Fold these 2 entries.
Entry 1:
Amino acid sequence: MRDAPDRPRASALIARLASFVLSLLLTFIGLTAVTFVIGRFMAVDPVLAKVGDRASQATYDAVRIEMGLDRPVYEQYLHYLQKVFTGDFGTSVITSHPIIQDLLHFFPATFELATIATVLGLLIGVPAGVAAAAFKGRWPDHVVGVVGLFGYSMPVFWLGLVGLFVFYGQLGWVGGPGRLDIVYDDVVTTRTGVLLIDSAIEGQWEIFRNAFSHLILPAVLLGYFSLAYIARMTRSFMIEQLSQEYVTAARIKGLSFWGAVWRHAFPNIMVPLITVIGLSYASLLEGAVLTETVFAWPGLGLYITRSLFNADMNAVLGGTLVVGAVFIGVNQLCDFLYKVFDPRLRTA
Amino acid sequence: MLHKLKYALVAGVMLGVMPNVHAATPADTLVIAKNIDDIITLDPAEAYELSGVEIVANLYDRIMRFEPSDISKIAPGVAESYTVSKDGKTLTFKIRKGLKFASGNPVTADDAAFSLQRVVKLNKNPAFLITQLGWTKDNVDKMVLAPDAQTLAITITEDFSPSLVLSLMSSVVGSVVEKKIAMEHNVADDLGNAWLKSNSAGSGSYSLKSWKANESVVMEGNANARGGAPKLARVVVRHVPEPAAQRLLIEKGDADIARDLTTDQITAIAANKSVVVTTIPQATLHYIGLNLNTPQFKNPKVVQALHYLVDYDGMANTFLKGGFKVHQSFWPSGFWASLDTNMYKFNPTKAKALLAEAGFPNGFDITMDARNSAPHTNIAQAIQSSMAQGGVKINIVAAEEKTVLTKYRARQHQMLLIDWGPDYMDPHTNADSFARNTDNSDKPKSKPLAWRNSWDIPEITKMTDAAVRERDEGKRKKMYLDLQAKVMADGPFIIMFQETKRVSERSNVKHFVMGPSSDVVYYNLTTK
């Protein structure tokens, strides 16, 4: 008897799971199809990246056939899909490694940077945005506005170089370009690829500290840009909520101003705020090419960009799938968090 | 548990933001900051990118080599001597006794023969260097022989000068790979290619510990190397794409050598006594290709006029100062048989007169493709400005290197600003491209620079072919000097500059050997 009510729930769960997997599959097929077609019509010859400019025509022709470029685009794409379904994403021209191996190497570097940056953006951006809304038109609002504007308008490339010059070059507070000092290269066994985690697992605190000192500046820089965005959106959401009658009612009932802000207004901005933070996090997880260039950070952004310039389509497609997966994953996480923070959605 | 995590996090943050004392680089390690994003493989039968060839030069010894101190002289490498048959078509090399690979196994003629055969059979990027000798997959096993452990005999079908063949043996394809190790990693008849992309099996000064794309190349000293173990036990070439970051690293002492500092940065660090800048002439030439299929360029007077509309000295003495010198012939200065006299100077008046005679008294509009990175963009802008003085209005189309090359190889450009470096140290390498075009049709077997600019030159092609066959060194030199003069006067190339590299080293770094090309950059003698 007990099982009876669970059956529809279980089948609903399976149906939802199936629909999720189907949407995931369709998204990936759509993403790869568009990327594949764009790649084939780019102004860069993919054979050039592989054989170089000096190779003889015979070598060039042989490689062109080897890469399957003599076949119709749809056939090339179907062949690619077929291989992907067997777990073969191909080999990168620019690194000579299987794409999966590359992605497992480059994505953790980006993940580490994006996560710390988002945590910083979140911890500072949300309170700053709330304060700006609470003190609308007064000095805290102006300060947050100016800081945010600065974050929006400064070129990341320039700010990165200035940051390096001051905090690494002059003050020596942080590590320089790269993820670690040379002496620590290859000391820690790669488990997750996230150096902070790998070094902590092995109890290599010296390396943990060194990795952190290299990470902190690019993370603060990216965190600053994400902070500017999060603070601005938080302010806007909060101003709207603070003008609602339920806030006035709470105040009339004797609740303090900050009590009304945090206990009544803030929970109501959580859902849109989660969307904003999720999008900001996902965009950082795509990789930040300019930041990665300045800080010699071997991340996903630099990898995809370099692959694109070399028409290394296997790598670009692999990178695209990761970016797609990141967006889908972050969306799912946001959906879950909506339900945690908004009781109305739990029964839906 | 949660508390522990919280404390660990707080401790981590505090440790991280605390002042971080930076030590100098480790005493036994040479740290080089360089942009190495061009490396796609470290297999000597496949590597043909500048950074890759440089690394390979330190991982593998070659059959012959060029001494960095005198680039016009070829020196013995794995081979201690050679003899040439009377007809000049068979070269017999005596392999040194007692040489060992990093693995400890002896270096034999069989390894050398395997290495050459492997290049031809794999047919990767640099294979053209030796397939031009007449070697094919089918005949190379008979043309390259190792009759005994100390003798390597190679026979060529083409009627080429032996000095050219020796130069080829000193290029990247002359690297000697250990046959045993390569064949242990032979997968699907790739002769170990997949494995050797990121591993080494050589007898050079170093062996490869790791190559992490977009990150670093780490090499460890080879105690078995000819001449003994290198002075520094480890070399780390760190990928630092941004020159400003390289400058910070060398000024802080976190790198021993920085390779890509810009002119501005070099000027700025001049006051820093802990950094020394060395200037080394390179073999790379920067030129503009003029596609003669462009209607305006059909008249040779227009091509002449454009040569007078480039302010060579103006550029070399201002924003290119110290990095480029004016050089207008196709074979770089400092090499055997180079023509060092320049024919053109900036002269808008003369150019205007020539354009008027050609029927363009008011000039014309034209597009010029160029790479979208420094110094190419700066050079393109300067050319745009000087050409405008003759009425030639240039529309610059800037793009990534591969996009520019794709267009160039399809000869779809009008003007195109680009650079060219020789493949080996013999003038034939450049003559073969600037002054040889055997088939000007749209589907040729090869696409030399003359073809790419639609320069149909049966007579000059014959001169080039004659020069490569000439066995009298004096006569051969004269032939290349004539060829260079002819291309300078009539060719569709505005050759402007020869590049100069500036290497920034910490003042304690000594004996870092850098020659005119990637083939001659040696780390093994460096001390600090």
Entry 2:
Amino acid sequence: MPALRPESPEEVQEAVRAYPRLRARGGGTKPALSTPREGEALLDLSRLRGLLAYEPEEFVFTAFAGTPVAEVEEALRAHGQYLPFHPPLAGKGATLGGTVAAGLSGPLRHRFGGLRDFLLGVRFVDGEGRMVRGGGKVVKNAAGFPFHRLMVGSLGAFGVMVELSFKVFPRPRTTRTLRVRRENLEEALADLERLRLLPLDLLALDLVPPATLELRLGGFERSVEARLKRLQDLLGEGEVLAEDGAHWEGVRDLGFLEASPIWVKVPAKPHLIPRLEALPLGPRRYLDGGEVLYAGATEEGLKALKEAGLPHLVLRGAETPLFPEPQGAFFAGVKKALDPKGRFPLG
Amino acid sequence: MGFLEELKALLPGRVLTGEAELAPYESDALTAYRKRPLAVALPERKEEVLGAVRLCHQYGVPFVARGSGTSLSGGSLPVEGGVVIALNRMNRILRLDPKARIAVVEPGVVNLKVSQEAAPFGLYYAPDPSSQPISTLGGNVAFNSGGAHCLKYGMTANHVLGLEVVTPTGEVVRLGGESLEGVGPDLHGFFVGTEGLLGVAVEITLRLLPKPEAYHTVLAAYPSLEAAGEAVSRVIRAGLLPGAMEIMDRLSIEAAEKAVRAGYPPVEGLLIVELEGPKEEVAEEALVLEGVLRESGALELRVARDEAERQAIWKGRKAAFSAVGRLSPDYLVQDGVVPRSRLGEALREIQRLSREYGLRVANVFHAGDGNLHPLVLYDGKKPGELERAEALAGEILRLCVRLGGSLTGEHGIGVEKKGYMPEMFAPEDLLAMEEVKRALDSQGLANRGKVLPEVVRAGA
């Protein structure tokens, strides 16, 4: 099977019409999702890149789907803005389209929400080769079926994204990170649950098993100092990371998974954590107050997740990345409408 | 047994068919449109909704799910000869779990009720459409309702984590879950905003947020609407992210004054900015905001010193719609969106159109997210005035699309704006919507006649 490298949305349409089965790839940072299976043509979108529009005052940008996240973030940083959902693997070459298809958000999602909260619009090529637009380029919009939200986590099931619009926010001026260690998981969880209910506006709230909490604050210098003090009154002195940028970049690039053969994302909740901690998983970290787990695993760990009936997505190291595969009349109907010939993954 | 007999057997004593009983369901908040349904069904449990939808499917009877009927786009307008499935009796909060920060609710629960129940835990439900004391979450989900805080917090779709849906063919599907993160396609996110065309949500899982610790609310008065709009740009350029920024024009201010005596100064443009967050951060932001507003040419600045003063500032804004209603026998509300930097241009053009059509237009809008709310005042008893008001409203919609915005920020397309869909979407976009609809509802029973313009269907 050839590798197709479209350079324009029209070339994506041609490719879709020409091949019965295709798999899109951006930066290839999540190989379990982007590696072509038997009979699939690889649609390499790395040449469909570039920022199309960015008006800082609007808090909105539009870019081709193959644009590396890092490239976008550089442009945003120049205007004191950022992507608050903190797309993972940016430092490894992740693209906007791949991030949306995988449905991934990083540790800073804790403050303002995840990918689904910042995606405003899409143009994609459906299974019939038609160019379809959903959503828009303004921060508020309720017109028409929201195809952009359908793309989140879709693994490309409904079409090939060519253009995406996102909301962005002003970047916090100053940041500090507090790391506190507890005696055991139980104590760490108790603190986590307490923190989740407080109006602290933390940028990040991570649990690193067995018993470490990492909290990141952002804002005006004086306010951050005062709030850090308040957190320490609440949790104890802990360890303060003043130069914390590199640390969180490492976390969002999932550096802690490097040595693991399998990388898996597991939706969670604080009450699920004891159950997850009983499974044979490798290096791992719970982001956003325990709402999502990124873990390294072996085949054994993956099997345990399945047996426990816990939905998950494998980013690296498995043939079938999504568990469970989408089912039910609703998915089937939407799939049939947009990809009737089954050119794309899933279903 | 025929359809109605079967429906009555399913819902004993809870199927309305009498003239007088049906009358209240003939229209929603878009009162210019009226349709007489065949019957109104009043289910009390989700199994009954399922049963009713299955009957409709079996007999080919169109159905419209309805909450409190506050839709401003005619979204819950009945279909002639069809059934209204009124969900108000399904008004239980099934579970409120503060640790998980979620609420699981039935579709007939009123929006504000969730925040009231969550308050003892320091939590709240963020989307706050002006209709929140009345409108139901089922309706909010169907129309992706917004409110005054969308720039920072998003719309209903961003706060729905999971759904149980009865599809138009009478199957039950679960979409999403309880976590803020999921795996697989975001089908629940897609369902929100499809205006009831793809099924009826019978159970909704909502995310709850910790209530902000501190607020800082400022009222700024300007000699022109444009100056108020420019102030919003300045706030954004200063790197601030207020929870809400609202603007009212002279006509709305006067109306609000008459209605609730909010104590607003009589000026051309009034801006409300509200910061929220941890007290130390809000204090720092307030300093920046004060500097920005001082330089923005404000005639007067008022800072709320306590919660009572904050409520006083909001009182007039919240009452604006109904207050404007007193100025005129009838009005139409539009809710088009423009990019924030084009606000001034949009407002100038609306004022020009108002003069051209000889109809007064009051402006109240969510400035932070560019969501306009022009209220077109008219008198339905004067021949031709409704038509003129509709034509003016249509011009405003076209203007919004031309400036790179949207037909609707939060009210939805409904019946009212479906004719304008081709202005915003290409034929292929509409065809894709049409095909999704057809795949899930081949008989076109669920909320027939909404969102999708007839022309596409004819051409498909």
